[in-house]
């Protein structure tokens, strides 16, 4: 059996957070209004609800007058009064669920990779020794802050220490971009991490 290639590169990065009308509009663009109506009548208003619904077509078994028109759109009415679901409707819903599942896996993988990279960068930088004797003690923290302590160590200034560490990080990215599987692998101070230096010279 051939495997269907599902390309998520054109999806909005926040597609898994779509709710209500934004979600239904997305379903109409990917599938059609019929599939949107099938989800909307069940109040399946986001990707999470769709993925957690075991059988989207379970309403076909309900004897409900409100569903007669929808049943006619998504199925064939047999002579015994039962309904046969149209193949394209089932395929489109399956494709939609696969799309969300793969996108979710990609986000989880990207998050784990970024976390691993940040941990490795912090370890590599904190274990490096600047090319000058100094009694200062440097702490590197990957936290969301722009504060920099402007106290100069006796042998090197804060800015000299920072430039040295940023060069180490840049070189590490160049050396490990193949291992990360990225052609353009670069970590930027202030965007991907924040470098904060503490001078404990007087402690």
Description:
- This protein is mostly helical and 203 residues long.
- It has two domains: 15-106, no CATH class; 128-180, no CATH class.
- The protein contains six helices and two strands, in the order H-H-H-H-E-E-H-H.
- It has a two-stranded antiparallel sheet.
- Strand 1 and strand 2 form a beta hairpin.
- The N and C termini lie far apart (69 Å).
- Mean pLDDT is 78; it is low at 131-154.
List keywords for this structure.
single chain, 203 residues, mainly alpha, two-stranded antiparallel sheet, 2 strands, 46% helix, elongated
Give a concise summary.
The chain is mostly helical and 203 residues long. The chain has two domains: 15-106, no CATH class; 128-180, no CATH class.
The number of E-state strands comes to 2
Mean pLDDT: 78
Order of helices and strands: HHHHEEHH
Describe the sheet with the most strands. Answer: 2 strands, antiparallel
Could you tell me how far the N terminus lies from the C terminus, measured between alpha carbons in angstroms? Answer: 69 Å
- In helices, the fraction of residues equals 40-55%
Low-confidence parts: 131-154
Number of helices: 6
Please tell me how large the radius of gyration is. Answer: 27 Å
Outline: elongated
- Domains, number: 2
Kindly name the structural category: mainly alpha
Q: In percent, how much strand structure appears in the residues?
A: under 5%
> How do the strands of the widest beta sheet line up side by side?
1-2
Question: How is the secondary structure organized here?
Answer:
Layout: H1 20-30, H2 33-40, H3 47-51, H4 68-74, E1 75-77, E2 83-85, H5 87-126, H6 158-180
Antiparallel strand pairs: 1-2
Helix pairs in contact: 1-2, 5-6
């Amino acid at each position: 059996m051939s495997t269907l290639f599902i390309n998520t590169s054109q999806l909005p990065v926040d597609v898994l957070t779509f709710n209500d009308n934004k979600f239904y509009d997305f379903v109409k663009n990917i599938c059609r209004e019929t599939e949107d109506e099938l989800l909307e009548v069940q109040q399946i208003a986001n990707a999470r609800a769709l993925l957690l619904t075991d059988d989207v077509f379970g309403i076909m078994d309900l004897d409900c007058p409100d569903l007669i028109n929808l049943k006619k759109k998504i199925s064939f009415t047999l002579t015994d009064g039962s309904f046969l679901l149209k193949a394209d409707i089932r395929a489109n819903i399956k494709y939609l669920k696969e799309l969300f599942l793969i996108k979710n896996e990609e986000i989880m993988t990207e998050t784990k990779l970024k976390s691993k990279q940040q941990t490795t960068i912090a370890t590599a930088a904190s274990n490096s020794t600047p090319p000058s004797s100094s009694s200062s003690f440097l702490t590197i923290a990957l936290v969301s802050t722009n504060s920099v302590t402007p106290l100069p160590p006796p042998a090197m200034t804060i800015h000299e220490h920072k430039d040295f560490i940023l060069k180490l990080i840049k070189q590490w990215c160049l050396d490990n971009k193949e291992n990360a599987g990225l052609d353009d692998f670069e970590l930027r101070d202030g965007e991907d991490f924040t470098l904060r230096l503490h001078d404990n010279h007087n402690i």
